[in-house]
Write a structure and sequence with these properties.
With 292 residues, the chain is mostly helical. Helix content is 92%, strand content 0%. The longest helix has 148 residues, at 85-232. It holds the Pfam family Sec20.
Length: 292
């Protein structure tokens, strides 16, 4: 019992929701119908083809939305499992009314298009011709501008070619001058090299001359010193002193050698004496036996 009650309550709630949705869709359809009726009731005159296209697109979009609302309303009616007689009659009347209005609007749109189709095509042709004329004018003006630009460019190129020729002649002259300067520098280099070699040889000769002068100066000093020492008797005194020193050294060496031999001789005598003592100690007394 409770399950049946719950199921019935759910069905009733669902039907109520569907009826509310159907009523909202019907209200939307009424608004759409009112909007389309206002559009078709006013006679409109257009001066360009874009206005025709916008008006036709606007009406077509509203008709499509209107038909979509009608189809949604049909779907919701089919979803309802139970409708009261009054509600069902009211909804069906509204739906039938809107279906008739939809057909009328479609017919009205086709009639309006047939009526204004020639004007639309005339406007399109006029627009195309005006656009073509403007394009021709722009092309002609562009050609004039291009011709002028080409002439200016040609003049600039001629001036540039003349300038390059002048620059080429100047470069040739400067290259000739540089070649002459290079030859002059080569001559200077050879002269500087020969001068450097000459200076080096002169320096070497001056060094050798200075060395010979110093040798001569020292030889002169030695001769002067010899003469002075000879006059003063210093040479003889030096010779005597050297002889005395050599004799003293000879005497000292002789004494050292004599002392060395004396010490060596004493050492040899002591060693001989010690050897004799050792031999005497090593002798053994042998007893002789005599036979009686």
């Amino acid at each position: 019992m409770d399950d049946n009650f719950i199921q019935n309550s759910r069905k009733n709630n669902k039907n109520v929701e569907n009826i509310n949705k159907i009523n909202s869709i019907i209200n939307h359809m009424k608004l759409m119908n009112h909007n389309l009726n206002d559009i078709f009731s006013h006679e409109q005159i257009f001066s360009d083809h874009d206005s025709y296209l916008l008006f036709r697109g606007k009406i077509s979009k509203r008709i499509v939305d209107y038909s979509q609302l009608i189809s949604n309303c049909k779907d919701k009616i089919l979803d309802c499992e139970y409708l009261e007689d009054d509600d069902e009659k009211r909804i069906n009347d509204e739906l039938e009314k809107h279906l008739n209005n939809l057909e009328n609007y479609k017919r009205g749109l086709s009639i309006w298009w047939k009526k204004n189709e020639k004007d639309f095509h005339c406007l399109c042709m006029n627009n195309f011709l005006n656009l073509q004329k403007s394009n021709d004018n722009t092309i002609s003006s562009d050609k004039k501008v291009d011709n002028k630009n080409l002439k200016d460019t040609k003049k600039i190129m001629i001036d540039e070619i003349n300038r390059m020729k002048n620059v080429r002649s100047e470069l040739l002259e400067s290259s000739q001058k540089l070649k002459k300067q290079n030859e002059i520098f080569n001559i200077f280099e050879e002269k500087i090299r020969s001068s450097a070699n000459l200076i080096f040889s002169l320096k070497k000769k001056a060094d050798s001359d200075a060395r010979y002068v110093w040798y001569s100066f020292f030889f002169f000093l030695s001769v002067c010193g010899y003469i002075i020492m000879r006059r003063l008797g210093l040479i003889r005194a030096i010779i005597i002193i050297l002889k005395f020193l050599f004799s003293a050294l000879f005497y000292l060496t002789k004494m050292c050698i004599g002392a060395f031999y004396f010490v060596k001789q004493n050492n040899s005598i002591e060693t001989d004496f010690t050897r004799k003592e050792d031999l005497s100690k090593s002798l053994v007394v042998v007893m002789e036996k005599t036979e009686l």
